[in-house]
């Protein structure tokens, strides 16, 4: 048996979405085929998804071998963290501080960065974002930290 | 005929207005830039720029976004020819002959061929869109709900079948996309579905958050884990002028590429990448100079480049006439239109003639601009490649972040983007394609509506889908497409074809 780990996991992933969907769908009235309730289409969709997930899983047991690839955990966590932090502190810290922090975190994901380059990048992007989003597009966003205002 | 001319006059009036010209130019410019840069494609860029188009008129917004899409097809060929590195998926095959031409000292000629072939294809495709649009629209207006449902079903099937990699996984992603599209308030009963009581989810999952997460953020992480390999240009671009011999050889390939691209672009799931590949295969089989392939044959540049540009434009046909996106970029266009309060579909030609004809004419105007942007300014674009990725990705990231936040001035959308960034990375590690998911997500809610309506009209009888001729033929085609692709022989042929590209 040559297991295709990617397909096996992909099948499990699709099937677990389907099971979660079907479970949550118990709250919705199904209705009849003629008068479909809010639960009818989800029922069709997730049963279909469950079936497909199952097929992908079963095929994956035989069409390998295809091993899982390594995850670039460092890059993954840092990039997602940079974005998450942006959301967390934006409303208190204001746009400028938030951007500087976000860019700072994101540059850690690539180890060829040098401090000087990072500072230059931050200054350049602060100016660019101010020009594009504040001056030209005039989006509603606080610029400075809350204690400053 | 007369009405076509008056419509085109209207269209050019719209396309040549100051605002629209500026934004078409901006779109073409941005498109070329991201086309040149590997690691950021049109899907990510358009989702990135969606939020900033909200303040514009719908016509201007779509004109700019369209410019990005076909601009990227031009830009992608530049890096392919000069650096042996495709800037976009659609220029993967241009590398094969284009880079060989560059090594023979004919880089300028290859670039000129790519640009001129693209321009020719763009012009032809514009005419095809203008001519077939109203025709198809009048057909589409006779569609009932059952026909629509089957048409969308066909669209989803084909987009899954033609996606890269495994067909069954493609279908899985489409269905998952449909499932994600169900989140939010049920239109007919007002009941909240799958919202977990989160008020931000009652309008559904943010379309921009999905697109940016899966195509923008996940791409960044994937690019970071691959070490950068860009050999900076070593040979001169050389003369941009073609010799008479080269010109003569490029013409038939350009025409064949244009025809193939126009047809494949209309098919759901087709689009630019598939067409350029198809054209390359065709040229290698039927060109008079096929023995020169692999050593820098101009046919291998002219054909695929014509094909990808023609396809980029003709893929607007199903969007503008039926409201059905043929690929991920068109799914974004649907999103852009819906956010602007316009439901894409057959009524758009009559309800929004400015948008319909303005967009068509601006495509041609945009192609003229691209010719100017690309050929004389080639040096500037090559310089752009010297910007290292380590400066590029933080910029993409903050633009994503601000863009997503400004959608609703709500940080919830930023968190959603983080989630879909992670999900997108997971999917690419498991070889699950993102594009079918996006198309399913856009089409899902529409399908549900048509399904309900059709079943209500037929009093719960499923046979309505098989009795109406239009609907029945759509379903028949879907099943044939599915059956043929699930046969092992054909599937391995498709995979071999895609792998080679």
The rough form of chain B would be described as: globular
By DSSP, the count of extended strands of chain B is 2
In helices, the fraction of residues of chain A equals: 55-70%
Q: What is the percentage of strand-forming residues of chain B?
A: under 5%
* Most strands sheet of chain A: none
Tally of individual helices of chain B = 22
Explain the overall architecture.
The complex is a heterodimer of chains A (149) and B (501). With 149 residues, chain A is an all-alpha fold. Chain A contains four helices and no strands. Chain A is flat and about 55 Å long. The model of chain A has no long low-confidence stretch (mean pLDDT 87). Chain B starts with a helix and ends with a helix. With 501 residues, chain B is mainly α. Chain B has a two-stranded antiparallel ribbon with strand order 1-2. The chains are: A mainly alpha (149), B mainly alpha (501). Chains A and B meet through helix 1, helix 2, helix 3 and helix 4 of A and helix 7, helix 8, helix 17, helix 18 and helix 19 of B.
Keywords:
heterodimer; A: 149 residues; mainly alpha; B: 501 residues; two-stranded antiparallel ribbon; 2 strands
């Amino acid at each position: 048996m040559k297991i295709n780990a990617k397909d096996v996991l992909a099948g499990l992933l699709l099937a677990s979405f389907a099971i979660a969907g079907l479970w949550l769908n118990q709250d919705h009235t199904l209705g009849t085929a003629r008068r479909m309730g809010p639960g009818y289409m989800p029922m069709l969709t997730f049963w279909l998804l469950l079936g497909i997930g199952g097929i992908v899983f079963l095929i994956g047991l035989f069409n390998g071998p295809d091993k899982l690839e390594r995850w670039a955990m460092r890059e993954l966590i840092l990039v997602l963290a940079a974005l998450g932090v942006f959301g967390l502190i934006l409303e208190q810290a204001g746009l400028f501080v938030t951007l500087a922090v976000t860019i700072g975190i994101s540059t850690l994901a690539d180890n060829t960065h040098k401090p000087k380059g990072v500072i230059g990048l931050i200054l350049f992007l602060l100016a660019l974002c101010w020009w594009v989003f504040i001056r030209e597009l005039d989006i509603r966003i606080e610029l400075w930290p809350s204690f400053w205002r | 005929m007369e009405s076509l001319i008056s419509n085109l006059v209207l269209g050019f009036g719209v396309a040549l207005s100051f605002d629209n010209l500026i934004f078409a130019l901006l779109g073409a410019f941005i498109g070329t830039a991201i086309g040149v840069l590997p690691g950021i494609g049109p899907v990510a860029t358009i989702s990135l720029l969606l939020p900033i188009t909200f303040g514009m008129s719908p016509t201007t917004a779509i004109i700019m976004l369209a410019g990005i899409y076909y601009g990227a097809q031009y830009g992608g060929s530049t890096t392919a020819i000069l650096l042996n590195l495709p800037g976009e998926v659609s220029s993967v095959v241009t590398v094969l002959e284009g880079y060989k031409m560059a090594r023979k000292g004919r880089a300028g000629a290859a670039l000129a061929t790519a640009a001129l072939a693209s321009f020719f294809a763009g012009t032809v495709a514009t005419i095809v869109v203008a001519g077939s649009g109203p025709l198809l629209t009048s057909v589409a207006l006779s569609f009932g709900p059952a026909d629509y449902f089957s048409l969308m079903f066909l669209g989803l099937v084909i987009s899954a079948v033609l996606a890269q990699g495994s067909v069954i996984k493609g279908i899985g992603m489409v269905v998952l996309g449909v499932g994600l599209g169900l989140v939010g308030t049920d239109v007919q009963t007002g009941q909240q579905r799958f919202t977990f009581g989160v008020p931000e989810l009652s309008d559904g999952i943010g379309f921009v958050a999905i697109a940016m997460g899966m195509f923008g953020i996940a791409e960044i992480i994937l690019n970071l884990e691959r070490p950068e390999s860009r050999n900076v240009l070593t040979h001169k671009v050389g003369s941009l002028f073609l010799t008479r011999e080269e010109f003569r050889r490029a013409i038939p390939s350009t025409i064949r590429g244009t025809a193939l691209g126009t047809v494949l672009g209309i098919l759901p799931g087709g689009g630019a990448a598939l067409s350029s590949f198809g054209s390359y295969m065709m040229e290698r089989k039927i060109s008079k100079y096929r023995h020169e392939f692999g050593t820098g044959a101009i046919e291998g540049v002219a054909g695929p480049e014509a094909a990808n540009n023609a396809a980029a434009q003709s893929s607007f046909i199903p969007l503008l006439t039926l409201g059905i996106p043929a690929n991920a970029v068109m799914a974004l266009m649907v999103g852009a239109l819906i956010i602007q309060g316009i439901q894409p579909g057959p009524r758009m030609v009559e309800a929004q003639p400015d948008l319909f004809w303005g967009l068509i004419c601006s495509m041609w105007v945009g192609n003229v601009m691209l010719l100017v942007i690309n050929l004389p300014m080639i040096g500037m674009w090559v310089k752009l490649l010297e910007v290292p990725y380590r400066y590029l990705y933080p910029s993409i990231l903050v633009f994503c972040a601000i863009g997503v936040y400004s959608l609703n001035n709500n940080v919830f959308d930023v968190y959603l983007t983080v989630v879909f960034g992670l999900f997108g990375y997971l999917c690419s590690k498991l070889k699950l394609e993102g594009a079918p998911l996006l198309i399913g997500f856009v089409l899902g809610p529409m399908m549900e509506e048509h399904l309900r309506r059709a079943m209500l009209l037929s009093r719960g009888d499923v046979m309505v889908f098989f009795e109406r001729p239009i609907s029945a033929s759509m379903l028949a085609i879907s099943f044939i497409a599915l059956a043929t692709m699930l046969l092992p022989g054909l599937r391995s042929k498709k995979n071999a074809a895609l792998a080679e590209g």
